[in-house]
Sequence to fold (915 residues):
Amino acid sequence: MKDPVVAEHPADTGDTGVERGASAAPSASEAPIPPTQEAAAAKAPHVRPGDRIFRGLATGSGIFIVVLIGAIGLFLLLRAVPSLGLNNANFLTSREWSTGDVGNMRFGILDLLLVTVVSSAVALLIAMPIALGIALFLTQYAPRRLARPFAYVIDLLAAVPSIIFGLWGLLVLGPQLTPIAESLTSALGFIPIFAQGNVSIALSGTIFTASIVLAVMILPIITAVSREVFDRTPVTHVEGAIALGATKWEVVRTTVWPFGKAGYVSASMLGLGRALGETIALTIILSATAKTFGWSLFDGGATFASKIALAAPEFNDPRSAGAYIAAGLVLFLLTFLVNAAARAIVAGHKEYE
Amino acid sequence: MTTDTADLTRLATPPTFQSVSGARKFKNGLATAAVWGAFLVAIVPLVWVLFIVVQRGLPIVVNADWWQKSLNGLLSRQQGGGVYHAIYGTLVQGLVCAVISVPIGLMVGVYLVEYGGRSRLAKATTFMVDILTGVPSIVAALFVYSLWITTFGFGRSGFAVALALVLLMVPVIVRTTEEMLKIVPDELREASYALGIPKWKTIVKIVIPTALSGILTGIMLALARVMGETAPVLVLAAYAPYINYNLFDGPMASLPLLMTTERSNSTAAGFDRIWGAAITLVIIITLFNLLATVVSRVLAPKTK
Amino acid sequence: MAKRIDVKELNLYYGKFHAVQEVSIAVPPRNVTAFIGPSGCGKSTVLRSLNRMHEVAPGARVEGSVQLDGEDIYASSVDPVQVRRTIGMVFQRPNPFPTMSIKDNVVAGLRLAGTKNKKQLDEVAERSLRGANLWNEVKDRLDRPGGGLSGGQQQRLCIARAIAVQPDVLLMDEPCSALDPISTLAIEDLITELKKDFTIVIVTHNMQQAARVSDQTAFFNLNGVGQPGRLIEVDDTEKIFSNPSQKATEDYISGRFG
Fold:
């Protein structure tokens, strides 16, 4: 019994790692139906043409996505650099934005950055507790039969186009908020964030209005992702807590919350990313102002996205357009970082996979 | 838990089932109220927005002209006319976007589930799909502007909009495809291999058809989503009040673009056009959502 | 068309785990060979290596040779797809394609290999369904989904699907373990008929089943958890169940095992 037939046959020739029920097929011809063993006649193992092409297409599409992200960064950079060279102000620290005279462009992103970050942060502050409540409600509290339709209703919020939220925010919600905004400034005006802003409160085109609308818009994404994580709380943990006589709230606090909180934070980061990049709703809501941002919720101004959107129809000179593209590049990097952070948080918790 | 009769038959020894302490009960009740409250708070804006859209838009669109005419030749303060030119733009830009996005998204999903495994490229692709999901629509529009208009020298057009929408649609399709392919049982793949069916045919003829209903639902929902996008049309298309069938040349209207354009029109006619377009957009999105439900019902694997 | 299988010094691995050690066995044509043994002894793994399904699992590896009428199915020039067309397989749980009708399920192998002739497909469908003793039960609803059949019918549908491509060998991996006793009996009757045309290898947990349907029985065992499975002995079924040459076999058969 020592026939020398110990040649190794590696699994899945040419394929890497784990695949779903996979088999690469080194082959000869693609003959129909059981031919006898003519296949053995061909010497060199070569991949079945159909498999090679299909695999190539699939892998190529994967590579395409990776290249695409690189291309986005590259092309934005390519168009931004010449304009940055013509910039007579400091791009990172200046609060000016004047690109009308291409001979003397002065633009900086500080104000845009502050308005973008503050409005998104306030929106997140409003949305986070509500989204947590909804996610717990849908996974733990809602009657079984109603949980799905209720979740569908929340998802509907995401289906409403942001332009409609913008119009509603400015024309419908804004006027209702005006009395609240006015009483806040008169009662708490000594605190900078509630101080009289640089635009008219009566017109309601303030960061205050914008943040509330943004909060509504990011609710569904935070809820959806949190819900998914809470749903994966191991049943054994929950049953263990129930068996100890815990109330519903104690079950949530001792099992669902510890298990899901990283996922909830990650979901909130995704919501933040969405808020940072939201364009048209803020373009509609925020009142333009020549004054700089003064750290008040009742300021107007522009975010990265709304500034670009307002100027977009007049992108005719590549030099002035380049200034906006530079701002867009910063926004891209900002959302990239926030989304990568959200992913990193989840990656640290393998049990969600 | 104690019952009403417990008081009558009170024993010297404490009852086995003691009532939960007041503080715990209170906290539990408070938490229950809070989560119900959170849900109701979220319903308010949804109902409010939809109510406003219907209230202001419905009277405008219950008019055959609205669906059959454009705004060509009308002054900004003139009532009447319709938005079929913008409906056409919205649908065509969305459909062309889907035609480009679906094969790419589908193949990326297939790569990730059937071929990628744990390779580095698969990990990089997953990561990049996540990043692409988070790319703001204005950034996607600027990218297409930099590439298509500035670098290649094409003009603003409906097609440029479709390209920007592709960036927003592809990651959604990848995610859906990935999820749906993952729940196709490996047993079906094995059954197919055991019949001597090559891997690519197994994927095309067995795996994808099994997952098709879910994938199509995802595509419909993604399509509904991108048709409401405004930022790309602002940057990449010029508005025309008349119909333009040519996707590659000339100004082309779409519903979001019509709405932003009419915002500078402060007359009653402008107001009507904005809300009429808003409800039209909502109707189209609703139709695509319904279509998604129908498709998933019809195509789902049956047992009877 | 039935062919013989000769397994020589077969070693099977999942990554670093040595699953099966040094198996050599000869399977004669037109004959039913049963693989029996405790869970984890590698009998299913050996079965799956006979049509190169073993390598579908991630990190799986094969050493040694498996010959079909003298030709090594693991030779580097052999296409595993061709091997699987020649050596069919029926799985533990019935797995009809959920998107296909009963008829489409049966002819799936042919159709996906390129046969378009409708008449030929109809003939094959009928012949295969008759061969699987299912024709009379489904002939009036060939266009209905395969998933609507009972478990036992689904398993016979899977057998029809496997024999439709006219393989030389049929591998069965515990084909009755998910079925009730009546369906099991139907499958066992079918196996007895099928062996007129096919070489059959069946893995079973049920020793009575092995005794009822097989001509030859192979007993696999393992020394302990984490140890590779080994072939203890292979012989005529009658002999294995009445007078096995190994003590371990006798212990297992008579229930004094482990």
Remarks:
- Chain A touches chain C at residues 1, 3, 5-12, 17-19, 21-23, 25-28, 30-37, 39-45, 48 (CB under 8 Å).
- DSSP finds ten helices and three strands in chain A.
